[in-house]
């Protein structure tokens, strides 16, 4: 059996971790082909989207979503962009996240549902779910998925992002906890989800950049960033999200404070499962809206 | 009349003698009690209990951390007060007092609160360890009233835990504050996954950490630089030698003989074996800094801190 390549701290110091991962996970794509692949991600922020108490202003959030999609798909009108991704005959599962400390905002779920209905999809063909997707007929019969969740640090995988959000599409969660949850991308290759995800959204309205305790949550480390990170490429969206958390940690602590676990699953999703682009140098990040303390 | 919460914990006492004799592991009841009302917050009357097999039901993503410190059981209590956020008490029984210390040390960052054997308080959360128990008390919100009630509750719970226990002996081998030790940075570990969470070394377990090994990681200040010292104790010298060989081969293949090198960040890494111990320094600004920490640890080991 071929010995798996060890990736050490020195690979990260050299900036060759990506190369090392490619070797480690036996990528089937040539270096040339990978070099050509690029991704686009939209970061949109609005200073008014949260009230002083942290409540989400639904109307503003909807506008942010529309504007992000319009820019992402280079359309003049948001409605055209939505129609580019979905058609009236689609059955769509909106994969949210119910983690009680930081759930997917109801306002975001609602905005997504309304946009899908505006495309012409009947309400009965739209489902919103997380823990019970495996028994939800909408998800089981879905033709398309939207992946929407808050971005946060995660004790075992480095970040809780779009790739990790599909853990509930399998029942044996603990099987994916090995080596910093590196194999989460595998879930995206299963028939229930493979090729169905049209849109990935990280809610960075109030991200969590550091965690502790049994629930890995400490409100001191949640901040009102007031943004959404949007893309069709889940790997690129997560790579941008991870970068945001990393930069915020450094800014907050005044020293290099790496993520608790290097989010190796993002790179593996790229290099091994070819789900998207993890290299920030190959991600075209379009920044829209409020720019104060944008960090990235 | 004061009402008290009674915790009856089924505690399987697995003494080596019993196991060696093939004796039955009979459950023993331990009892801890503390007031059911503090500062106007009242216990809601429910206890949620968890064991290693269902700990994942309680915590999303962090259960492995507790299991790595030989988690035995968890009891969770909630206290409520009208118009105030609820308070949660989590009482973890770990495999030993060293494990309780370990889980405490792993996330320690805030100021000492003077509760239990060691504690910290900040951000509406109190954490402490005493004996084989690790306790966490927190509120869903912050404020002076919540903070003071959490501290009072913590004192009562700590008082209710009957016995103290020793911290891991290995810690005594760390060179002290005179050479820049940052006390709060000491982490006691048994797994390479946890080591990587505090200081990433390699994706694979190149230092052969396992439940039979013990490790301490600590930071030392060198000017503005933070240097990491890692000390690992293996069951035998042979296992330590094998682990050192594995580490050097993967991490510093160009310096396996001399045992030190300048890495790509222009800082120094040094590693060596002393008996059943591996001593390693990472990120030293000068070779002399690495050498001083290694020699300081060697001296401690020779003093018999082990």
Kindly describe this structure.
Chain A has ten helices and eight strands. The longest helix of chain A has 20 residues, at 234-253. The radius of gyration of chain A is 18 Å and the shape is globular. Chain A starts with 8 loop residues before the first helix and ends in a 7-residue tail after the last strand. With 296 residues, chain A is an alpha/beta fold. Chain A folds into two domains: 1-36, no CATH class; 39-289, Rossmann fold (3-Layer(aba) Sandwich), CATH 3.40.50. In chain A, strands 1, 2, 3, 4, 5, 6, 7 and 8 form an eight-stranded mixed sheet that branches. By secondary structure, chain B is α+β, with helices and mostly antiparallel strands. Chain B folds into two domains: 4-160, Protein Transport Mog1p, Chain A (3-Layer(aba) Sandwich); 169-303, no CATH class. In chain B, 26% of the residues lie in helices and 36% in strands. Chain B contains eight helices and 15 strands. Chain B has helices spanning 16-20, 55-58, 63-68, 97-106, 144-160, 192-198, 237-251, 287-303, and strands at residues 4-12, 27-35, 37-38, 41-50, 71-81, 84-94, 118-122, 125-130, 133-139, 187-189, 214-222, 225-233, 260-262, 268-274, 277-284. Chain B has a seven-stranded antiparallel sheet with strand order 3-4-5-6-9-8-7. In chain B, strands 10-11-12-15-14-13 form a six-stranded antiparallel sheet, with helices on both faces. In chain B, strand 14 (268-274) and strand 15 (277-284) form a beta hairpin. Chain B is elongated and about 65 Å long. Mean pLDDT of chain B is 87; it is low at 8-30. The chains are: A alpha/beta (296), B alpha+beta (306). Chains A and B meet through helix 1 of A and helix 3 and helix 6 of B.
């Amino acid at each position: 059996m071929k010995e798996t390549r060890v990736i050490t701290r020195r690979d990260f110091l050299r900036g060759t971790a990506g190369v090392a991962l490619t070797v480690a996970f036996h990528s089937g794509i040539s270096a040339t082909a990978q070099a050509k692949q690029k991704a686009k991600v939209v970061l949109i922020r609005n200073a008014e989207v949260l009230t002083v108490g942290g409540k989400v202003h639904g109307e503003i959030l909807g506008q942010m979503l529309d504007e992000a999609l319009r820019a992402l798909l280079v359309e003049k009108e948001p409605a055209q962009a939505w129609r580019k991704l979905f058609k009236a005959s689609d059955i769509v599962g909106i994969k949210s996240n119910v983690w009680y400390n930081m759930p997917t905002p109801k306002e975001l779920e609602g905005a997504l549902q309304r946009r899908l209905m505006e495309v012409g999809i009947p309400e009965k063909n739209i489902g919103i779910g997380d823990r019970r997707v495996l028994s939800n007929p909408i998800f089981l019969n879905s033709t398309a998925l939207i992946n929407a969740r808050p971005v946060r640090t995660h004790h075992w995988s480095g970040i809780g992002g779009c790739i990790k959000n599909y853990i509930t599409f399998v029942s044996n969660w603990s099987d994916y906890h090995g080596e910093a949850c590196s194999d989460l991308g595998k879930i995206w290759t299963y028939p229930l989800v493979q090729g169905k995800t049209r849109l990935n959204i990280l809610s960075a309205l109030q991200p969590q950049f550091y965690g502790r305790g049994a629930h890995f949550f400490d409100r001191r480390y949640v901040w009102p960033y007031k943004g959404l990170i949007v893309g069709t490429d889940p790997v690129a969206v997560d790579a941008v999200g991870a970068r945001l958390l990393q930069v915020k940690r450094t800014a907050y602590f005044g020293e290099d404070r790496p993520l608790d676990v290097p989010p190796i699953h993002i790179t593996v999703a790229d290099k091994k499962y070819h789900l998207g682009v993890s290299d920030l140098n190959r991600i075209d990040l379009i920044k829209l809206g409020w720019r104060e303390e944008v960090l990235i | 009349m004061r009402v008290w919460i009674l915790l009856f914990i089924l505690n399987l006492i697995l003494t080596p003698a019993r196991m060696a004799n093939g004796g039955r592991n009979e459950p023993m009841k331990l009892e801890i009690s503390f007031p059911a009302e503090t500062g106007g917050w009242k216990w809601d009357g429910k206890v949620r209990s968890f064991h290693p097999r269902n700990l994942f039901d309680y915590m999303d993503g962090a259960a492995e951390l507790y299991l790595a410190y030989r988690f035995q059981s968890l009891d969770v209590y909630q206290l409520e007060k009208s118009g105030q956020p609820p308070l949660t008490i989590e009482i973890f029984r770990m495999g030993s007092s060293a494990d309780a210390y370990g889980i405490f040390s792993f996330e320690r960052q805030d100021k000492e609160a003077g509760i239990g054997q060691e504690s910290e308080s900040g951000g509406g959360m109190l954490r402490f360890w005493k004996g084989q128990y690790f306790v966490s008390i927190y509120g869903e919100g912050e404020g002076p009233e919540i903070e003071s009630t959490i501290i009072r509750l913590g004192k009562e719970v700590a008082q209710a835990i009957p016995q103290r226990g020793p911290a891991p002996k290995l810690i005594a081998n760390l060179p002290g504050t005179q050479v820049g030790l940052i006390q709060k940075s000491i982490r006691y570990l048994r797994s390479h996954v946890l080591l990587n969470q505090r200081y990433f070394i390699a994706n694979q377990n190149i230092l052969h950490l396992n439940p039979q090994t013990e490790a301490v990681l600590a930071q030392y200040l060198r000017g503005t630089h933070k240097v990491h010292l890692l000390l690992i104790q293996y069951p035998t010298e042979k296992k330590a030698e094998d682990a050192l060989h594995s580490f050097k081969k993967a991490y510093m293949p160009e310096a396996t003989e001399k045992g030190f090198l300048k890495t790509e960040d222009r800082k120094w890494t040094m590693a060596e074996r002393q008996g059943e111990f591996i001593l390693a320094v990472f990120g030293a600004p000068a070779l002399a800094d690495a050498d001083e920490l290694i020699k300081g640890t060697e001296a401690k080991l020779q003093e018999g801190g082990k």
